[in-house]
Amino acid sequence: MISRTQRDLIPTYIFLVIIAFLSIFPFFWMIVSITNTNSDIFSGSMSFGSNLINNFNSFNEQVDLVRVLWNTTKVAVMGTFLTLLIASLAGYGFEMFKSRVRERVYQIILLTMMIPFAALMIPLFTLFAKSGLLDTHIAVVLPTVAWVYIIFYFRQSSKAFPAELREAARVDGMNEWQIFFFIYVPIMRSTYAAAFIIVFMANWNNFLWPLIVLQSDEMKTITLVISSLSSAYTPDYGAVMVGTVLATIPTLVVFFAMQRQFVQGMLGSIKQ
Amino acid sequence: MARQQTTPMNRFMNVNGWAFVSVSLVLIALFSIYPVIKSLWLSTQVGMGVVTHFGGFSNIVRLANDPLFLTALKNTFIFLIVQVPIMIMLALVLANALNNPNLKFRGILRTAIFLPCVTSLVAYSVLFKSMFSYNGLINSFLLAIHVISDPIPWLTDPFWAKVTIIIAITWRWTGYNMIFYLAALQNIDRSIYEAADLEGASARHKFFKITIPMLKPVILFTTITSTIGTLQLFDEVMNITVGGPANATITLSMYIYNLSFKFVPNFGYAATVSYVIVLIVALLSVLQFKVVGREK
Q1: Which CATH number fits domain B60-293: 1.20.1260.100, 1.10.10.10, 3.30.160.390, 1.10.3720.10?
Q2: Which of A162, A221, B45, B214 has the highest CB neighbour count under 10 A?
Q3: β-pair partners for B46
Q4: What does the pLDDT read at residue A44?
């Protein structure tokens, strides 16, 4: 027997299950598609086929798989490491060393969050062209490593860092940098974990800016590769699907491993 | 107000304060503030490629008479006006449903609905492009269950191409917004709902009279971020429709990209178009803050 409350909730269950199904379905179809031939994918076949190896080989023939994954990993890891370092230093700095001038500066940098990337991309492109950094991975990550949203997140989280710990460390003769690296960083590791996911995903999935700065095939990341494969006149959907699966797996793994931190990281922006 | 005393301790704190924030300040100045000023200067330049000269307001005059710019502006606003309200409402309804403590499997349902927002914009766009192709999965399914008698030209008809983009963005971002509402709902005291129950308030009544007013600041936050996101729409249109058919889905960001990197480079004019986005973002944000501020 189902209770009255549960019976009243049946429409809610139906609604939520439909939405959940629609949310998951494209993932399922992506997995089915990498096992099918082009014509099966094109006609929307929903059953698993036996073409996985062929699709994989086809992808590998058109792009240097190892190279592309290496490039993407390099960009994501480098971007994430630098962002976490630079943004957490700033977030800690703004919170722990408050001064009237720095508050003003902080308000100005918060305003820069409102500037759309479209307004920056042309001057950024000419800046990198002049400095000879076009077509490098450093050019891909550099403009985002001082990510204001993440600075804001670290500042909000730093409010929870106990002042007594800082005092005690000072008494022990540690300088401010030692306090940051040896006490703050280890204690705030869940904050770092949350920020890690957001920043890693953004870097792994980045598209427009890499599309502008990366020109040679040897430098291209997975999103650029998928995009160019699928924009071919007659796309090889089997190979394209292999690309989308390869691009999605790392972020899915990171998400499932650190689901709670991911949500926490997103919510950093509305915490009071 | 008393002037702060310059004690050695204060000076020490000040030096460290600047040291900790210095790297980010330099990078933000270089990669955000300098470009946005440079962009303003660029918008006064006319000419092709690297050969440019001062043109005063001629780019703005060109803007007003550029049919492609007006199309991009119109498309961007159609996406904004249609998609953002649909998504915000859907996210609110979902969060409200998932917040019911009697509901079982809440965790699984929440994770499932949230999952789209961990995919890359390019990967899901490409996926949607194949699903919505003329002979593709969606049409096959709709034909099979007799909802339609002829396939819908999702990607090749100006109207349906816009619909496809709207469906795609809604799929990707609804769960993202839902999480903010779920978090905010958790902060609402359950006793308010219990009191409403005692007075015999209907679920609809509770949703519109308690939930929505209580969530107003979060709704404002998600509306602003969604608006800014939609104004910058690029990855989806680039990978699903390439702005087509016949520019029916071209957005401002895509037009700027085309002006700078696809057509003969015209950085000056592209910068002018990009400033339109800056102005719209600023205007809409002020407007949205005003609306919420007044109702408080």
Answers
A1: 1.10.3720.10
A2: A221
A3: B53
A4: 75
Give the tens place of pLDDT for each residue, A46-72.
888 888 888 898 898 889 999 999 999
Q: Which residues of chain A make contact with B109, given a CB cutoff of 8 A? A: 16-17, 20
pTM flag (> 0.80): yes
SS3 A31: helix
Residues of chain B in contact with residue A180, where contact means CB-CB under 8 angstroms, are: 20
The pLDDT score that the predictor gives to residue B100 is: 85
pLDDT tens-digit map of B151-191: 999 999 999 999 999 999 999 999 999 999 999 998 888 88
What topology does CATH give the domain A65-163+189-269?
MetI-like fold (1.10.3720)
Give A 16-45 residues with CB within 8 A of chain B: 16-17, 19-24, 26-27, 29-30, 33, 41-44
- How many CA atoms does the CB half-sphere of B194 hold within 13 Å? 5
Q: Which residue has the tokens 């795609």?
A: B168
Q: Which tokens hold the place of A233?
A: 């006149």
Contact A34, A245 (CB under 8 A): yes
